[in-house]
Amino acid sequence: MKLFPTLIWTFTILAFLFLFFSLRSQINQVLYSFIALGLWGVAFLLNKFKPGEKEKET
Questions:
Q1: Are 11 and 40 within 8 A, CB to CB?
Q2: 37-44 long-range contacts, Cβ below 8 Å, gap at least 24?
Q3: 50/42 Cα distance (integer angstroms)
Q4: What confidence tens digit (pLDDT) does each residue in 1-58 have?
Q5: What is the number of alpha carbons within 13 Å of residue 54 lying toward its C-beta?
Q6: Residue 44 vs residues 17, 28, 29, 47, 52: alpha-carbon distances, Å
Q7: Those residues with Cβ within 8 angstroms of residue 38's Cβ, 6 or more apart along the chain or in another chain
Q8: CB burial string 34-44: b at 16+ within 10 A, e below
Q9: Alpha-carbon span 28 to 56, nearest angstrom
Q10: Per the confidence metrics, is the pTM higher than 0.70?
């Protein structure tokens, strides 16, 4: 599916943006950090469990 790589990159880029905001912001720094961590987690899980790719047993 072409949708999953697009979603993974979108969530990864958003995570980096929120991490940048958390480093630049004086207020809501922890909130932006948690949002960045959550977005990175979503991207990681999408990448780990994307359909159509089965692990080969060797």
A1: yes
A2: 39/11, 39/12, 39/14, 39/15, 40/11, 40/12, 40/15, 42/11, 43/7, 43/8, 43/11, 43/12, 43/15
A3: 12
A4: 678 888 889 999 999 999 998 899 888 899 999 999 999 999 999 888 887 766 666 6
A5: 3
A6: 16, 24, 22, 5, 16
A7: none
A8: ebbeebbebbe
A9: 45
A10: yes
For CA atoms 56, 50, 5, 25, give the dihedral sign.
Answer: negative
| Residue 24 host element (H or E) | helix 3-24
User: Distance (Å, rounded) from C-alpha 23 to C-alpha 36?
Assistant: 11
- In terms of Cα–Cα distance, which of 3, 31, 8, 5 is closest to 18? 31
The residue whose two tokens read 């469990």 is 49
